[in-house]
Amino acid sequence: MKNYNVSQIKPLLDNAKTALIVAPQLSVDSIGAALGLALALKRKNIDAKVFSPQKTDANYSKLDGLELLTETANTSNDLIVTLDYPLDQIDQVSYNDDGGKLNLVVKTKPNAAKVESDHISINNQSNSADVCFMFGEESSLGAANSITQKGNWIFISPVNINKAWAKATLVDPDAPYSEIFTFLLPMLGLDIAPDTGKDLLIGLRVATQSFSVNVSPESFEAGAICLRATQPDMVQNGSAPTNTTPIENVENKESGAVINQPLTNSATLPTA
Question: For 19-65, what is each residue's pLDDT tens digit?
Fold first, then answer.
């Protein structure tokens, strides 16, 4: 069992209501770990989404939580001024420069009611979530890497790099992201439910070619943790499960049916 130092990470989650998870490099491992984390956060009533600049394909279709993926990062800081006022009573909206200050001018129609101050609301559309996770080097995000300029960022990486924008950093050169988060989630007080366990297990199997390369004792331990999480009938206290699912079928299990469609290309899950 790995034991990470979460003293800097956990306080960032304590009062978070929103979370952004960024996977700059598309892989089944990174997306599986990101979605597993997002699903775990949502169970804690933290609104989470996953940003990946590259579009996923059929190789990712067996992952749970794909609806949480977004292909665009809202890096704007738009200011929205909203008027709670009938649109049919507004004649014209314009702006002018008043000595370097911007004036927004709303002209109402003749005999229309006055726009009162309590009709006006202002919303700063900043993209920064309460807590943000970056999976590896952000440079491949291109222009979107400006998202690191604000927010409480947690940097997860296999390489020991100092990121000035990161409030917390976790480096593990010996593990894929799916293995890291299998051990990290419980340390952060997050549950590994069946959907999270499934995503982490798929990512772990692909990253290790069904536990045949780049594995350690902790890799197998992580696999066992995730497999147990996918077993709804697993008996506690060390007893055997009443209904087991072969590890190679976990990622094909949808609504109780086993689907034999294999993954293709770089995301192929080799037969154990």
Answer: 999 999 999 999 999 999 999 999 999 999 999 999 999 999 999 99
Compute the chain's Rg from CA coordinates.
Answer: 23
Angle CA 61–177–1, to nearest 5? 125
Alpha carbon distances (Å) from 21 to 4, 230, 249 = 19, 23, 28
* CATH code matching the domain that covers 10-74+127-267, chosen among 3.40.720.10, 1.10.10.60, 3.90.190.20, 3.90.1640.10: 3.90.1640.10
- The tens digit of pLDDT for each residue in 132-189 reads 999 999 998 988 888 998 899 999 999 999 999 999 999 999 899 999 999 999 999 9
The model carries a pTM of 0.72
How far apart are the C-alpha atoms of 193 and 40, rounded to whole Å?
A: 7
Distance between CA atoms of 9 and 157, rounded to whole angstroms?
A: 14
Contact between 181 and 22 (Cβ < 8 Å): no
